[in-house]
TrEMBL record:
Belongs to the enoyl-CoA hydratase/isomerase family. Keywords: Lyase. Gene3D superfamilies: 2-enoyl-CoA Hydratase, Chain A, domain 1, Lyase 2-enoyl-coa Hydratase, Chain A, domain 2. Pfam families: ECH_1. The keyword Disulfide bond does not apply. This is Crotonase. The keyword Lyase applies.
């Protein structure tokens, strides 16, 4: 499927989705969000895709936010639709049963920072800057930022970022848990793909189950979350992969995953 504002490349089971509007610092307008939705759905359907990497075109920005020029023309009802679209697309990304990795190559601001928050793993280049600068525009985050940011870094750090609108550099972002590693720009994509490849080599049903348990459990009381884990753990014993994984260990050979 051809896209206007995205580049999609699939190699070795890893789909790389690049937001490609470098003149607008890869800002997200409606079309780009709709294309992201289609790309994520496609990756979720394609059994050959075992991991997804998201990045931005050019060496300046990952995604500098929602498209401010487009947003400036919206009334309240259209703004609600726009936010709902962003929520739907990022919810779709978050719910994919494969690992999703953000390779943050530059500015990740507003909707760009929110895009990283919907990914499982986030790696940043030394040039990356993270922030939720919406208050500078008289706005608040609208693609899940007030909620996912709080869950990722805690309420006080979330408030500092959202209420000041200040950007943080990559080492500061790492210290607060917004990204995992900071690497030189030329190494970023390979670093992110390397992590994606590692996860993609593991049992796919186990990976999908573990991801779901961590995400669903985070919103539940511990007792209910642990009940969910017991259910997920036991469920794997009815499939082929867990049998194969344990048999392969005992036979001292690599496992051959069937994805069941
Ligand atoms: N939307 C639309 N266009 C954008 C944009 C955005 N979010 N960010 C940058 N651009 C455009 C600029 O308008 C500029 O276009 P022109 O060349 O046509 O003038 C081009 O990208 C380059 O940007 P700058 O000249 O501003 O580059 P800079 O190096 O001086 O500054 C920057 C870089 C600090 C990232 C600055 O561009 C900036 O502050 N961008 C806006 C960041 C922002 O506020 N993001 C939040 C958006 S709101 C949001 O995302 C809401 C939500 O949660 C849903």
């Amino acid at each position: 499927m051809g896209f206007e504002n995205l580049l999609v490349d699939i190699a070795d089971g890893i789909a790389t989705v690049t937001v490609n509007r470098p003149k607008q610092l890869n800002a997200l307008d409606q079309k780009t969000l709709e294309e992201l939705s289609a790309a994520f759905e496609q990756a979720g359907r394609d059994k050959g895709v075992r991991a997804l990497v998201v990045t931005g075109a050019g060496d300046k920005a990952f995604v500098a936010g929602a498209d401010i020029a487009a947003m400036s023309r919206l009334g309240p009802a259209e703004a609600r639709e726009f936010a709902a679209l962003g929520h739907r697309v990022f919810g779709l990304l978050e719910a994919l049963p494969i690992v999703t990795v953000a390779a943050v190559n530059g500015f990740a601001l507003g909707g760009g920072c929110e895009l990283t928050l919907a990914c499982d793993l986030v790696y940043a280049s030394e040039r990356a800057r993270f922030g939720q600068p919406e208050v500078n525009l008289g706005l608040v985050p609208g693609f899940g930022g007030t909620q996912r940011l709080t869950r990722r870094v805690g309420p006080m750090r979330a408030k500092e970022l959202v209420l000041t609108g200040d950007m943080v550099d990559a080492p500061t972002a790492k210290a607060m848990g917004l990204c995992l590693d900071v690497v030189p720009p030329e190494k970023l994509l390979e670093h992110a793909r390397g992590k994606a490849r590692t996860v993609a080599s593991r049992g796919p049903v186990a990976v999908a189950t573990a991801k779901r348990l961590i995400q669903q459990g985070a919103d539940l009381p511990l007792g209910e979350a642990n009940a969910l884990e017991r259910q997920g753990f036991a469920g794997l014993f009815g499939g082929e992969d867990a049998k194969e994984g344990m048999r392969a260990f005992l036979e001292k050979r690599p496992a051959q995953w069937k994805g069941t």
